[in-house]
Amino acid sequence: MHTPRSRELRLPGHGHGNKPQSQAVLLLLLALAQLMVILDISAVNVALPDLAKDLNIGGGDLGWTITSYSLVFGSLLLLGGRAADLLGRRRVFLTGLGVFTVASLASALATGQEVFFAARAGQGLGAAMLSPAALSIITTSFQGPERAKALGVWGAVGGAGAAIGVLVGGTLTELVDWRAIFLINLPVGIGVAVAAMKVVPADVARPQWRGLDLRGAVVATASLAALVYALSQAADAGWTSVQTLGLGLAGLAGLTAFGALELHTRKPLLNVSRLGERGVGGGFVMMLAASAVLFGSFLLTSIYLQEVLGTGALETGLAFLPMAVIIGLGAHLGSHLVGHAGLRMAMAIAFGLTAAGMLLLAGVDGDGSYVGDVLPGMLVAGLGLGIALVSVALSVLTGAADDEAGMLSGLNTTGHEIGGSLGVAVVVTIATGAIGTDPSASIAGLASGLGDAFLVSAVIAGVAGVVALFVLPSAASFLPKLRLAPRVAIH
Asked: What phi, psi does 17 have (nearest 5°)?
């Protein structure tokens, strides 16, 4: 039916959605909300030593500082995305924003590890609603070339936000306190919520609770949770351990069962048949690879700067600033590149640049320097990753119907989280494995292990670039959809 689409397209900005300034404000608010989600992933990494000391978190439990957030976030994204379609995008966005903001306050006020981990899980719950809802609002509020530009901004936030998070985390931890990382979300969250009530398109339809696939949601959430947990703990437990193999295989089996269930569900949580499309399925695979390299390289670079070069939290944060800028530039270039050359060429160029940057970083050693050993590779890889992130979003979301925007947004963000968890698990295993081989020279051993991990990241990027040429849609079939989006998707 065409009616829901036509009603929704008349509503942005309460009747003023076609004004450029209104669209710009809408995009700014949604990007700012997503930035909060991204910042709280990377900013905490820099604050871990101070945080662990204040809350008496032992070394064995320190990983839960990250895992408690990513586990809930990654496992609930499909449900959050579909809820946005059925319950209302603005309703889900504002609810997620409220939960995330309150959980941020609880994180800042925590006096023990149990409360802190629970608050971090609450942040993950809020983020799982907020993030796909925000992306689906962008997808349905911008059409044609404007959508490409808007998704370019979204891609820039996804990549550059992680680098900015390291800077913000380092600055606040060193100059104020680690709790400021969470407290800063309060004024931002409240301000975004107030502005969103005026700018984000109102939900005209009633919530469709009966249409929400709760059976599929339970299976998908449990399966993704098992997979994320297995990956996040693989470096410590071992890749061949009963825990990693058992949970990993259980998660994959659960996702297979989920796919079979969804094929026979009237209103599925995920329209599995869409994964057979080159743009959606291929784009999801590209997101896994891009996120694996992005999150893995951020962690590796942070470790090298702090543990090998001996930089402090603030200095480490400042070191990532050039990468934040270059990722933003890459995302801007990516939206234009896709619009002229298509997905295959844009993604191949993106991963080629990323692989080259990782190869430059693979040369790090114990006697290196930031300017000579880190910055060149960081800039080259950052440019490639910026192009890749916006290309992936355009691949998955171009042609999305209004009633599937949340679903595909949830799928896109799920790839971001699963890929990131996989990338971190792989590079940590490689980097730390080298230390054990030469305990008498820990700095040299660590630098060598980091170099090996960067090399593996280069291989992942290189392979992804080649795969992109075969699995993504051709320019001839994709570009007409991009120029007409979303009208091509009307059923």
From this structure: -65, -20
